[in-house]
Structure formats: structure tokens, C-alpha cells
Amino acid sequence: MKTYDVIVIGGGPGGYAAAVRSSKWGLNTILIEKDALGGTCVNWGCVPTKAMLKYAGNMFIQSRLKTYDFLYQNVPNDYGLIQRKSFEIAARQSQRVKNLVSNSNITLREGEAALLSANEVEIRPSGEKISGEYIVLAPGTVARKIPGVVYDDDTIITVREAFNFANAPSSVVVIGSGATGLEFTTLWKRFGGTVTVLEALPRILPHEDEDISREAKEHLQHSGIRVLTGVKVESVVKHPEGVAVTYSDAAGKETLVVEKVLASIGIVPNVANLGLERAGVAATPRGIEINDKMQTNVPNIYAVGDVTAKLALGAVAVVQGNIAADAIAGKKTEKFEYDNVPHCVYSEVEVASAGLTEKKARELGYQVRTSLQPLRAGGSTSTLDEDGGFIKLVVDARSERLLGAHLIGHKAIELIGGPAALIASGNTVPQSEEVLLAF
After folding, report:
1. Taking residues 179-198, what's their average pLDDT?
2. Are residues 168 and 116 in the same domain?
3. Which pairs from 295-301 meet CB under 8 Å and 24+ separation?
4. If pLDDT is split at 50, 70 and 90, which confidence band does 383 have?
5. Could you tell me the CA-to-CA distances from 134 to 18, 28, 292 in Å, in that order?
6. Are residues 237 and 251 in the same domain?
7. Does 110 score more than 90 pLDDT?
8. pLDDT score at 388
9. Which of 29, 190, 225, 323 sits 20 to 30 Å CA-CA off 203?
10. Full-prediction pTM beyond 0.85?
């Protein structure tokens, strides 16, 4: 049986980062991936989604400029074209990850890995068995499905299948209003689709600050997207004309018949065939439990990425992978502050946040002061005649430390970097006022 210093299971951002860092520290490392390197983020998530949204965004800007009598010719409104282009971009990025792994003196195996014990792994379907002093688990997640609904990968789908359409759907119900659901809502709306968003909770983007959620809903509705909150999906079934979705709210029941239904209601850990119980690794329905060093309850087994249920972002997974590798190599590690991580929503209206929401800050016992200023006061917002959006700051009134920044509107994603850095550095408001940013 071949023995390695480190076995990494999963080649997404957390997994390949852990493998590269481990090899850098001189550890004999093997990386096992059953699909394309780069994981969901590179192949079926962040990268292809943003490529498609970029094209749709350019179309939107062109439509806005027509109001100033600009004439555009030969601009294709071709959904299939941008779908193929997005996959080309994702494939190139996956190849870059493969090149990085190959150039880092890492053994790469294709297959599905399963734990046999706390030190042994079987690679399927080959049946090869290997052992390792340390194991890093980075299997990622899969889409959460609505109980009782029969998915067909064509008309009733999860996000993974949403990339497979050669044509934009003419009518869609999107169940769930998190970042991913709203990004596909935006994409299909800009290609002329009729889109309805159904959210079970009282507000959309439920993890964002409440003021952001309220503004986002108003903006989406103003753009022609129907947004319903506080609803219960009663059934999703095939229909001769597509799919019938029945939902209920305080007003009663209603049924919509649409071409497609996208269920974007969250993720669950991809551990069904991983063999956690054979290694004694503790997990909850949300994910594998870890400490600040990414270590599980089994001392030589670590977990990184979305499967840890900390914050499902590729950048977070990379940091977790690096921390795990450093801990394995006996290097000093720092506690990672998840609250300070900036996160964005590339929807019809851009949303970007970092730090604590007003509600979270109050729950933690801070004496909270907030400031809300319209983005239209800045020149950048007015260049495309954008009139909505704002920035909201959350401050500890006692120390004047900046706790959170929440933006919605034009170029919000570009603007979040500055506030995020100030929050992570622990800056106060007076200190922040001395920092100038280009505009």
C-alpha cells in the first residue's frame, strides 16, 4: 500500500490549495478528484455564472445607451453562444488549476475517494488503496433538493443543470432568493424571460442586512421581476405546458405554469459516500465540524471548503486549505475571521457586504450606530444615470470601530474592497476618514 504524508480528497479551491501548500512545505502529497479540477466554483459556479452575467450586463448597458440615441448593430442576443463561451472560460481555468497541481510535485488521481479508516483511503472505481499520515477532506457540497419533488435535469432543475440550456427559458420560477438564485434570475430576465422568485422567508437575501434586502426587492420588482416572500411551495409537478408550481401565502393558493423551475434553496455536504463513520469523523447535517486549524475531531483529519458550512465562497476555501496545510506542517496559524470576509451578489442590482449586519452587531452586544448614504452622491453612479442604491455603515458607538459595510447599487462590488480592508484592520471611523480611495 502506497503511503503519503498528506492525502487531499477533492480538487476544488480548498482542496487544491491545501495540496499545493502541503507540497510547498515538503510533504509528499496526493490529490484525488473524481471530476474536473477547480470544483464547483470553477466549473459549475462562480466562473461560468459570472462569464454569462458579464455578457448579459453588456447587453443591458447597450439597451440603456439606446436611450441616448446610440445605435448598436450586429450585437448578438445569443444565449447559446454565451453558454458555450462560459464553458470555454471554465475549462481554461480548470486547466490552469491542473497545471498548478502538476507543477507543484503533487500526485494526482482521478476517482472517488472513500475513507476506510482514519489513515486509509480507497480510490474508486480502481480499488487502489493508499494510506496517509494526514488527510484533508474537501469534497464540497451538492444542491439541497425539495422533498417530494421529482427532478428531471431539464424542466425541474438545480443550479448544476441550469448551465445546460442552449436557449434562455421564456418563463421561470426560481425557488430561493440567495445569491445564486438571484444571479440566474438576473441572467434570464435580461434575455427576455418572465421570472418569478418564491422565497419562504420573510425577506430575500436573508443573510444580508435587512435594509439591503428591502432595497433589493424593490429594485427587482421595479425591473419587472415578480418577487414573493413568506410563501410555501406546495408542489412542483410536470405539466403538458412545462411545470406547474403551486404555492400558498396569507392570501391563499396560486398555481403558476412555466417552462422551467430552478430550485436554489441551499447546499448540503457531499459526504454520502465518503465513509466519515469509518474514520470516526463528526459531522452535522450542515457539514463537518472543525476547529480554528481546520482540524476535525479526529486529530490527523482536516476539512476545508463548503463542506465545513462556514462560508461557501471559493476564496474562503483557499484560506482554509492554506491554514490546514500550515497546521499539518507544524507552522503557526492565525484564527480566520469569517465575519470580515466580503461577499457579493451579481444580481440585477449589485450587492456587496463585509463585516457585521446591524442585527448581528446588536445581538453581539455592541452599542450600534449606523449611517446610510445614497450612492448617487458619487460621480461613478451618475455616469450611467443610475439613481438607486446606498452604502450603510455599522459602527460600535463606544469605540467608533467600523463593524460592517453594506452596499447596494451600481459598482457596489467594486467599492466593497476598501471598507472590507478597513473592517479587517479594526479601523475606527476617524482612522477610516484619513484613507482616500481613487474615484
Report:
1. 95
2. no
3. 295/324, 295/327, 296/137, 298/118, 300/118, 300/119, 300/133, 300/134, 300/135, 301/118, 301/134, 301/135, 301/136, 301/137
4. low
5. 12, 11, 17
6. yes
7. yes
8. 78
9. 190
10. yes
